[in-house]
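User: I'm new to structure prediction. If I give you an amino acid sequence, what do you actually give back? Let's try with this one:
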Amino acid sequence: MAFGRFGGQAQGPQAEINMVPLIDVMLVLLVIFMLSAPLMTHAVRLSLPNAQSSATPPEPAKVELSLDAQGQLFWDGAQIPREQLGPRLQQLARQQPQPALHLRADQSTRYQALADIMAEASRQGVKQIGFISDPHPAP
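Assistant: Good question. You get back a string of structure tokens that encode the predicted 3D arrangement of the chain. For your 139 residues, that looks like this:
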């Protein structure tokens, strides 16, 4: 773009800078750098040390205590009388590391029956109590 004076005579052509070739060169350089940048990240060859980690401790065992609709108790699938529940929970609480107690109850079981079992487990010293439910309930 040429600039001129107001109301005067033109004194000759003024030089303009043509930006198109400069932009072309810059775009070519940009493409070259973009293509060569990923190759430069792995240019340094290193011999990395191997890490030795300690073995992960095994997960503590779990005991599944089931309560059916009739109020019968099942300790890891085997039916037990109600009188054996206290001693078994006490034995469970003494183990190191203490296994987790997983409670599984029928959906028609009264809440009071489950609350009694939880209270007995707490009295005997069981620290980890979990509930098992059906992740896909029937419609």
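You can read the tokens as a compact description of the fold. Here is one thing that stands out. The first strand starts at residue 62 and ends at 67.
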